[in-house]
């Protein structure tokens, strides 16, 4: 500029749900038979797409007929894995309104994943409004049957159409949805506990890594170990990480001698497959510790994880507290202590030998709670207690309460209606 003052760049447009345009499909698909649904296979009529351009910022969000994306072959996401996603579900309320469960947690988590990959930022409330709009449009896809829901998959990908190894200032945010049945068939046979292979040679996450973010890049390297575990007869992997006490290593390094023998050789549990890990440990006095690894950067901050911890907290509150929800089947006199602490596979095995492990399970949106029956650990199997119906006493109480909240049968401030 002539006065020598550099021109202020225009502020980039934030994601704005009020700019949403809806272009409905001319013909709608036939709805599939609910019993034939396989997770993530069914495509609905519409999707939501919004693009971010480097100079303009976020454009107009659009709900359009479901179709393939068009990507330049040089797109950043195809080369450098600038891909992230979320997973959540909408259930139908008895009055026919779709209900979301704590969608603010997913929206915020997605902004953190975007920040971690240096993808364009966006306002989480706008994302939530767009999710609600798409769910409202696709509401007819939610089967009116117990346990059925609409799985919602918001994604953000870097679309900078060049191969330079720099952050992607072009991006596409899209949301697709897919009707889905209960993870465990409600056929009266109950839930079958899964088997896990404790992995010593492959790690999912590590200190300073990206395990706490929902990135596509965290998933790709897990398929080969999972495939090998399946060949050995295990359904998923129990992810471990060497449990080195940082104080201990500091002291060793300060002495100038790295004595490997002195480092702890125990392996701490991080996650169970793509779920957060929980162990229910019985205290001497019969109260329960609900143990799950802390959010130290190696664990995904799951919405289901947080909700299980909160429900345990609520169980212990005095009855006149407005947040009070007693866990069904667990007497109010039996306290349930939420414990975010590290637990090693060796400690779990020792507690199991003493008969103090009531149950272990995974928690996540897809299965809600998945009991774990068997863990393959150093060439032998640890067999955890089995219960009629599959769930142990605490996980049964948690799953019942959560499923009640999902469909609006249990009133909760966590429920958000899509109207
Ligand atoms: C998504 C996910 C979970 C579960 O998170 P929810 O918000 O409860 O669905 C747990 N672990 C990993 C690795 C995940 O990607």
Automatic annotation (TrEMBL):
Q: Report the residues modified as N6-(pyridoxal phosphate)lysine.
A: 214
Tell me what reaction this enzyme catalyses. Answer: L-isoleucine + 2-oxoglutarate = (S)-3-methyl-2-oxopentanoate + L-glutamate; L-leucine + 2-oxoglutarate = 4-methyl-2-oxopentanoate + L-glutamate; L-valine + 2-oxoglutarate = 3-methyl-2-oxobutanoate + L-glutamate
User: Recorded E.C. number(s)?
Assistant: 2.6.1.42
Keywords, comma-separated and alphabetical: Amino-acid biosynthesis, Aminotransferase, Branched-chain amino acid biosynthesis, Pyridoxal phosphate, Transferase
Keyword Amino-acid biosynthesis present in the record's keywords: the answer is yes
What the entry lists under CDD domains is as follows: BCAT_beta_family (cd01557)
Report if keyword Transferase is assigned: yes
The entry's protein name is: Branched-chain-amino-acid aminotransferase
Residue stretches spanning the membrane:
none
Which domain of life, per UniProt?
Eukaryota
Q: Which GO terms describe its biological process?
A: L-leucine biosynthetic process; L-valine biosynthetic process
Q: Which organism is it from?
A: Serendipita vermifera MAFF 305830
Q: Which SUPFAM superfamilies match?
A: D-aminoacid aminotransferase-like PLP-dependent enzymes (SSF56752)
Cofactors needed by this protein, per the record, are:
pyridoxal 5'-phosphate
């Amino acid at each position: 500029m002539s006065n020598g003052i550099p021109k202020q760049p225009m502020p980039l447009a934030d994601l704005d749900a009020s700019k949403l345009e809806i272009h409905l499909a001319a013909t709608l698909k036939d709805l599939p038979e609910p019993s034939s649904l396989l997770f993530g296979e069914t495509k609905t009529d519409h999707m939501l797409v919004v693009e971010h351009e480097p100079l303009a910022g976020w454009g107009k969000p659009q709900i359009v007929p479901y179709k393939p994306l068009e990507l330049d072959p040089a797109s950043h996401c195809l080369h450098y894995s600038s891909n992230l996603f979320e997973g959540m579900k909408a259930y139908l309320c008895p009055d026919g309104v779709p209900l979301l469960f704590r969608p603010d947690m997913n929206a915020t988590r997605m902004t953190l994943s975007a920040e971690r990959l240096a993808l364009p930022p966006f306002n989480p409330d706008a994302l939530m409004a767009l999710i609600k709009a798409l769910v409202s449009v696709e509401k007819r896809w939610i089967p009116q049957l117990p346990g059925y829901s609409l799985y919602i998959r918001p994604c953000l990908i870097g679309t900078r159409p060049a191969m330079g190894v720099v952050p992607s200032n072009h991006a596409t945010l899209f949301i697709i949805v897919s009707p889905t049945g209960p993870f465990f068939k409600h056929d009266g046979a109950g839930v079958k506990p899964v088997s896990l292979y404790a992995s010593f040679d492959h790690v999912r996450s590590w200190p300073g890594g990206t395990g706490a973010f929902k990135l596509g890049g965290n998933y790709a390297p897990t398929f080969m170990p999972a495939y090998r575990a399946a060949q050995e007869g295990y359904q998923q992997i129990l992810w471990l990480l060497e449990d080195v006490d940082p104080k201990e290593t500091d002291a060793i390094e300060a002495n100038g001698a790295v004595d490997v023998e002195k480092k702890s050789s125990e392996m701490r549990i991080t996650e169970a497959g793509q779920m957060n890990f929980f162990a229910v440990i019985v205290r001497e006095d019969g109260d329960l510790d609900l143990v799950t690894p802390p959010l130290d950067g190696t664990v995904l901050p799951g919405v289901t994880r947080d909700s299980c911890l909160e429900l345990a907290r609520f169980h212990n509150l005095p009855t006149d507290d407005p947040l009070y929800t007693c866990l069904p089947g667990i007497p109010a006199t039996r306290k349930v202590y939420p414990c975010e602490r590290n637990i090693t596979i060796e400690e779990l095995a020792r507690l199991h030998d003493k008969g103090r492990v009531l149950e272990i399970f995974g928690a996540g949106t897809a299965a809600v709670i998945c009991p774990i029956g068997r863990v393959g650990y150093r060439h032998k199997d640890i067999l955890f207690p089995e219960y009629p119906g599959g769930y142990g006493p605490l996980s049964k109480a948690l799953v019942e309460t959560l499923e009640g909240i999902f469909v609006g049968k249990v009133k909760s401030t966590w429920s958000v209606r899509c109207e």
